[in-house]
Amino acid sequence: MGAFNHKYLTALVVAALAAAVLLAIMMRLDRPLRTPAAPLGIISFELAGSPEAARQIMTSWGPAARRSAALSLWLDYAFLISYALVLSLLCTGVARAWPSTGHRVRRMGFILAGGQWLAALLDLVENILLQQILAGALAPLLPLAARWCALVKFSLIACGWLYIVVAGGIVFRNRIAAGAASRH
């Protein structure tokens, strides 16, 4: 089974199911957070970058929506573990499945697997900062630090997905071609 043994697949499925359930709940909690001041809901809050923008977003939410935001941030602690595990396992699996002659592509997969845990760490810091802002702390650096954590987090996650799709697609295509060639 190579890169995808039983323990690997079990961890991947469990983490993916946890991530999917948590994401569904958080998306439901995000509905009342989508306002003209926060068109992207909690993501707008993550990217606010300034006390003024954060204040405008929280004012547009009102007390009930702020409680939804707080709950979403608490759930995100579990979500960040599950998405980091899924993405790191996928990056690692693709890297292990890549031909041994492609050392750079394999190495990139392992680096990006670790990058998903860095994304999760940044997400954790971002959540702590956003919870402080929701609690009323609007020091100028809090929204700015949260924004930078979010931007780097999203970049690392995007790079991980890009690797999974492109390198994984190539591995899949090559395996299909090799299977077709062996049947002829």
Per-chain topology:
Elements: H1 6-30, H2 42-46, H3 51-97, H4 103-134, H5 141-183
Helix content: over 70%
User: What's the alpha carbon Rg, rounded to whole Å?
Assistant: 20 Å
Give the N-terminus to C-terminus distance in angstroms: 23 Å
How confident overall, as mean pLDDT? 94
Count of separate structural domains: 1
How many helices? The count is 5
**Overall morphology:** elongated
Low-confidence runs: none
Structural class category: mainly alpha
Could you characterize the architecture of this molecule?
By secondary structure, this protein is an all-alpha fold. The chain has one domain. Helix content is 83%, strand content 0%. The chain contains five helices and no strands. α3 (51-97) runs antiparallel to α4. The protein is elongated and about 65 Å long.
Quick rundown:
The chain has 184 residues and is mainly alpha-helical. It contains five helices and no strands. Helix 1 packs antiparallel against helix 3 and helix 3 (51-97) packs antiparallel against helix 4.
Question: Which properties best describe this structure?
Answer:
single chain, 184 residues, mainly alpha, 0% strand, elongated
